[in-house]
Amino acid sequence: MNTDQAKTLTETALMRLSEALERGQSQALKLYLAVMSRFHRYSWGNVLLIYSQRPDAIHVAGFHAWLRMRRYVRKGEKGIVILAPMVGRKKASDDTLAEDEHTRLYGFRTAHVFDVSQTEGDPLPEFAKIDGDPQDATERLKQFIVTNSITLEYDERIRPAYGLSSGGKITVLPGLSTAGEFSVLVHETAHELLHRGERRIQTTKVVRETEAEAVAFVVSTAVGLDPGTSSSDYIQLHSGDKATLAESLAYVQRTAAQILKAILPEDPAATLSNL
Q: Which of 159, 238, 241, 275 could cross-link 209 (Cys pair, CB 3.0–4.6 Å)?
């Protein structure tokens, strides 16, 4: 694929993505955010505790929190032990309230949470997913990654993340769908090409995630996948929007074109019909 062809594919796809961002949050994203906001946020120490006891955990919450979401912990399930903060008012020795009477943390206690896999009941809304079959484009993309001196590994330990970019190395969660794997590979490849060295310091996380996902949207669409609202939802989940994308168009176009030229054939006639 030559430069002009790649540019045409990129511009068409980015116009679609920009329009999706302008429409705002999809219904799927609104439902997803509404439920996720009800899950507790855990400290790094508790994340390690959860992982050490149940490495495959995806979403955890307490017994009563699951009940509020109309899901029920199955009988016989063993809870995951975490440390819960104890907050209250410290009392003086004469059993009166301490001098400032301010609420404060004064210790920790053990508590139990359960992963969604240990529960049953009403289904939780899922984040939008990408569909389709990238066929041999995945192997060509892997070759492109290796050619650029980037190590590629698959490792369960990055869960719940699907992929990680760590400067010369991409790690992907095994077991993803073929479409999901391809999209994650493109996303992390974009990070490697765009966000190493000085430019990482010069950009915010919002900009970096918007750029990487925009590249993933362009390339995934070009090989015939259907991202649906997954890319626009992802960008908005990281606080990106149409304006963020507009400011990064030159970087996104250049990087998407670079990848497309490496993985697509010279004649993009069939590919253009996907856009």
A: 238
Considering only CA atoms, which of 223, 235, 230 is closest in space to residue 259? 223
Can you say whether residue 54 is alpha, beta or left, with left for phi > 0 and alpha for psi between -120 and 50 degrees?
beta
Write the CB contacts of 139 (distance below 8 Å, at least 6 apart in sequence): none
For residue 217, what are its two tokens?
Answer: 């949207």
CB neighbours of residue 13 within 10 Å: 26
**Which of 222, 218, 227 lies closest to 254 in space, CA to CA?**
218
Before 160, cis peptide (omega within 30)? Answer: yes
Gyration radius of the chain over CA positions: 23
- DSSP, collapsed to helix, strand or coil, labels residue 163 as strand
Q: Where does the chain show beta strands of DSSP type E?
A: 60-61, 71-73, 80-88, 104-115, 119-121, 151-154, 163-165, 169-172
Tell me, yes or no, if the pTM score tops 0.90.
Answer: no
Beta-bridged to residue 86, according to DSSP, are 107
DSSP secondary-structure letter at 117? G
Residue type, 184: V
171 contacts: CB under 8 Å, gap ≥ 6: 153, 154, 155, 158, 163, 164
Model confidence pLDDT, tens digit, residues 110-134: 999 999 999 999 988 777 889 999 9
Query: Alpha-carbon distance 258 to 243, whole Å?
Result: 23
